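Lecture 7 notes: from sequence to structure.
We start with the chain below.
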Amino acid sequence: MKPRVLLTVEEAAESIGIGRTTMFALLKQGEVESVLVGRLRRVPVSAIEDYLGRLAAEQHGVTEAEA
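Predicted structure tokens for the same chain:
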């Protein structure tokens, strides 16, 4: 079975150990990208990985230009 490339908001939140409300806030702020599939909001796995990479870089003092 192929790994999924799109997650529900709840699955995305669970995958990084945060709550659903916090994930919706990150989506609204533009910190995590999402897509609409019909009327359903989905979070690409790559968007989670990108967010975590930026978060780690910020905490280690690396700017996007240096990364």
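Points to note: Residues 6-59 form one domain. The helical segments are 9-15, 20-29, 45-59.
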